[in-house]
Design brief:
Number of strands: 0
Helix content: over 70%
Structural class: mainly alpha
Strand content: under 5%
Radius of gyration: 21 Å
Number of domains: 1
Length: 378
């Protein structure tokens, strides 16, 4: 990447951030109650990419491999965008009553179930838990980013120096994402419970982050990838797709077999209404179609095809997050609204601007500037 490209990238990111901020303020002023459910969807989607990027970088520190060399700049920039998402969580924390039944005193007063769960589903405790989650995530991201920057030339080898951080970080990530998924998504339907949902959300985050990094690699590459590296990336993408599908199917199978009111309450509005069509779209584009295509060695060895599959998976994951969240607010209405587009343009735009700034910052003016293609054949 040339210095001129870095300068243009920062300029574009600045313009994008200002435009997104204006749209964000517009949404807050015009229709806050309609805007915040859409806000939650896009915020969760962007948060998933950043956290998934952090998890993949931690995994790479334990395993090593050339695949991490090519994706590291994009994964690191996505991870380093976490502070922006921490700031964007603040408006949500002060609008809990617009999102969650358990945050409305008048609803809790007439619901025995919500009173029983009040020891956990409490607005003050919810906010403190969110602060703790982000404190841990930001601490891991800071330590990992600092270590990777210092050891930039040695990234292809297993990160023994960061091995302890990687092991501890993955454990913390698994625990915190399980609790955070329960707080931010599962509690939208307070009666529902699932022991697999946190793992499913965490795997979806890693899949979306890996897909995002592949799309960025396709965008930034100046030359073709080595066939072996392209094949490895395709195999890893297939692995993420299969693991996500396995967890999603096992959750559905267990709940369908038990047929308990407290467990089917989440699936009924998503499978017995117009939302079923959205679920079919998720099944096809988040699993079936990528699975069939990625079985082909020829497809995996064509970077353009691999980039297209990764892009479709990223969009499918956005639809999946939409399918997880929105039926709680629009039980019979699955069509996107203007507030969804506004949230995507504003919250997504702010996160993308932060990502571009962090990506461009990896090539300081006084340092030797490398192109992404320079590490493709490592």
């Amino acid at each position: 990447m040339s210095r001129a490209s870095v300068s243009r990238l920062k300029q574009s990111a600045s313009i994008l951030a200002v435009t997104a901020l204006i749209l964000y303020l517009l949404g807050m002023v015009l229709a806050a109650q309609r805007f915040f459910p859409s806000y939650l969807v896009v915020w969760l989607f962007c948060l998933g990419i950043s956290l998934g990027a952090m998890a993949i970088l931690l995994v790479h520190q334990l395993t090593g491999g050339a695949w991490g060399v090519s994706l590291r700049p994009f994964l690191q920039a996505a991870m380093e965008s976490l502070p922006v998402l921490a700031l964007l969580s603040i408006p949500l924390l002060f609008r809990l009553a617009d999102l969650y039944l358990w945050a409305r005193p008048e609803t809790v007063a007439v619901s025995g179930l919500l009173q029983q769960k009040g020891w956990y589903l409490d607005p003050s405790l919810f906010r403190w838990r969110t602060v703790i989650y982000f404190a841990l995530w930001l601490a891991i991201a800071y330590a990992l980013s600092r270590g990777l920057t210092q050891d930039r030339r040695n990234i292809a080898a297993p990160g023994h120096r960061l091995g302890a951080l990687a092991a501890a970080g993955l454990i913390i990530y698994a625990v915190t994402i399980t609790l955070a998924a329960t707080d931010w998504v599962m509690s939208l339907t307070p009666v529902w419970r699932s022991s697999e949902f946190g793992l499913l959300v965490g795997e979806g985050e890693m899949l979306s982050a890996f897909s995002f990094a592949l799309v960025c690699l396709g965008w930034a590459s100046r030359g073709p990838l080595a066939l072996s590296l392209s094949h490895d990336l395709g195999n890893l993408l297939l692995m993420f797709v299969l693991l996500w599908a396995y967890l999603a199917f096992m959750q559905y199978l267990v709940i369908w077999s038990e047929d308990l009111p407290g467990e089917i309450a989440w699936y009924l509005p998503r499978l017995e209404t117009g939302w079923r069509g959205v679920g079919i779209i998720v099944t096809v584009f988040h699993f079936a179609l990528p699975f069939v295509l990625l079985l082909s060695r020829r497809v995996k060895r064509r970077p353009l095809m691999l980039t297209a599959i990764a892009g479709s998976l990223l969009l499918a994951h956005l639809v999946d997050v939409f399918w997880q969240v929105m039926p709680a607010f629009r039980p019979g209405d699955y069509m996107p609204r203007w507030s969804d587009a506004l949230a995507m343009a504003s919250i997504g735009g702010l996160w993308l601007a932060a990502f571009l700034w962090r990506y461009a910052a990896q090539w300081p003016p006084n340092a030797a500037i490398e192109t992404p293609g320079a590490v493709h054949h490592a």
